[in-house]
Amino acid sequence: MTISPLAHVDPAAQLGTNVTVGPFTVIHANVVLGENTTIGSHCVIGVPTLLAEGEPLRIGANSTVRSHNVFYEGSTFGDGLVTGHQVSVREKLVAGVDLQLGTLADLQGHTSIGDHVRIYNGAHIARESRIGNYVWIFPYVVFTNDPHPPSDMATTGPIVEDFAVIATRATVLPGVRIGSDSLVGAASLVTKDVPAGMFVSGVPAKKVALAKYVSLRDGSGAAYPWRRHFHRGFPAEVVERWVAEFPVEPVR
């Protein structure tokens, strides 16, 4: 275990083997860090809040939390969490394995996130959002949960199903369901449910075509489902399954 002499770690915090804590980081009491996890400098980990109802912040093994992150107590992350800088995460968020969070990502509480999800720089994930597995949320995407801001009517954030892709600067309104394998175009305003496998775009977003009809720019085939051609960073056993499911078609 390597803890900077300039860090403050509460004696009640539970740190696994081979944990590293950078300078000027504060780790509060109600925190559980898995083995081989690295916490960068200037972080605040396990901020106390009554909204956590006493639940600890749990960060799984082999995770990397870079500098200036703020995590509240009461959330749980599976193994392999990786963050950029200045990420903020509130209480009662539950995430699976291999979550990647870009710099300045802001995740509100009472949200669920599946496995192998990618959330890029500056994205805002509203309270009560539901995100499936293998979802891509690109920079500056905004999820909302208040139909008449500001109001006391905030209910549920968006629901995003497995393998969906939401392109940069899209805004998704409260309670909207984005179906599996769908594609939301850049800068779109999503006001209605998106059917599975559909490409939508515009303000407000409208159906353009089935996502499978979007071609790669190099002419080598269909861009979606994206796992037909993009495998980097995913487990070998998962990629093997994708290759069998989506054999590469010869270019004609």
Provide a short characterization of the protein structure:
The chain is mainly β and 252 residues long.
Mind explaining what this structure looks like?
There is one protein chain. The longest helix is centred in the last third of the chain and has 10 residues, at 236-245. By secondary structure, the chain is mainly beta. The mean pLDDT is 96. It has one helix at 236-245; strands spanning 2-3, 8-9, 14-15, 20-21, 26-27, 31-33, 38-39, 44-47, 57-59, 64-65, 70-72, 76-77, 82-83, 88-89, 94-95, 100-101, 106-107, 112-113, 118-119, 124-125, 130-131, 136-137, 142-143, 159-160, 165-166, 171-172, 177-178, 183-184, 189-190, 198-201, 206-210. β30 and β31 form a beta hairpin.
**How many strand elements?**
31
CATH architecture: 3 Solenoid
Mean pLDDT: 96
How many separate domains make up the residues? 1
User: In percent terms, what proportion of residues is strand?
Assistant: 25-35%
The spatial strand order of the largest sheet comes to 3-6-9-12-15-18-21-24-27
Gyration radius, rounded: 19 Å
**Major beta-sheet overview:** 9 strands, parallel
Shape: globular
- Helical segment count: 1
CATH fold category name: UDP N-Acetylglucosamine Acyltransferase, domain 1
CATH class: Mainly Beta
Helix content: under 10%
